[in-house]
Amino acid sequence: MKIVTSIKELQDEIKKQKKEGRVIGFVPTMGALHEGHLSLVQEARKQSDYIVVSIFVNPTQFNNPDDLKTYPRDLDRDVKMLKDLSVELIFTPTVKEMYPEEDKRQFDFGMLDKVMEGKFRPGHFNGVAQVVSKLFDQVKPDKAFFGEKDFQQLAIIRKLVKDLKMPVEVVGCSIVREPDGLAMSSRNQLLTPEMRKNAPLIAKTLFESLNFASGKTVKETVDQVVNTINGSGMLEVEYFEIVDGNTLQPVDKWDDSDYIVGCIAVFAGKVRLIDNVTYKYH
């Protein structure tokens, strides 16, 4: 396994592998790895010959400086986990390497980034697009693997690739959950023991809403989810929206779309957790 910090070293290695006809699979991460990330690596192993994992906490996607400061980092642990999975190359650039000068690019995602995360974290997806477009350009992967937990991010990256005509296949991978249902996230390790005990209510409520929705309106379903989670006294819903899975625009009725997803963001103390569930998929 190689660990490189410079774009030049990375590109030299990739060129060599491409010359030998290998399919490059790429998993971009911000470190603090967990089983969810490892499942992306395992999927990449099935679909590619040579795996690159990047570990880079990207400052341009944090609209809250405290969030950037407290974001968990443990490179030694991450490297060990990736070594156990026989990852071929880890790319760990510095901020200076990735942004030798300020990236002033502004991306237009239409309405995709105006809702949900985009509404509550202004500038977040522009920062995601800046770093992902740079990484795709540097790694030149054949396939890139992202978790469906970040549902809106996945839709935006697909649009980015289409708009920039990048020759990479974006592969969405299922949410990986803890045994008690909580969606795996690097932020879970920031939860206090009491918050950790309460956090599984998010997934539990979402799954129960799949049954509740039958015979109920979209609005009744939204209210039920929000009231149940807020009713715990420990968790606070920032948003819960039931949307068209392609456009991410809210739906009013269940027959408004063939693909309907419920996306949620919840504060457990100061830790912000996201999750989603699919109501309808044809």
Considering DSSP H and I runs of 4 or more, what fraction of the residues is helical? Answer: 25-40%
What strand line-up does the widest sheet have? 1-4-3-2-5-6
Overall shape: it is globular
Radius of gyration over alpha carbons?
19 Å
Instruction: Count the E strands.
Output: 9
> CATH class of the largest domain, please?
Alpha Beta
Instruction: Tell me the count of domains.
Output: 2
Strand content: 15-25%
What is the terminal separation in angstroms? 41 Å
| Number of helical elements | 11
Order of helices and strands: EHEHEHHEHHHEHEHHHEEE
Largest sheet: 6 strands, parallel
Q: Identify low-pLDDT runs.
A: none
Q: Provide the CATH superfamily of the largest domain.
A: HUPs
Could you report the average pLDDT, rounded to the nearest whole number? 97
What structural class results from the helix and strand content? alpha/beta
CATH architectural type of the largest domain: 3-Layer(aba) Sandwich
Q: Output the CATH topology of the largest domain.
A: Rossmann fold
What does it look like?
The protein is of the alpha/beta class and 282 residues long. It has 2 domains: 2-173, HUPs (Rossmann fold, 3-Layer(aba) Sandwich); 186-276, Pantoate-beta-alanine ligase, C-terminal domain (Pantoate--beta-alanine Ligase, Chain: A,domain 2, 2-Layer Sandwich), CATH 3.30.1300. It has 11 helices and 9 strands. Strand 2, helix 2 and strand 3 (50-55) form a beta-alpha-beta unit. The protein is globular. The model has no long low-confidence stretch (mean pLDDT 97).
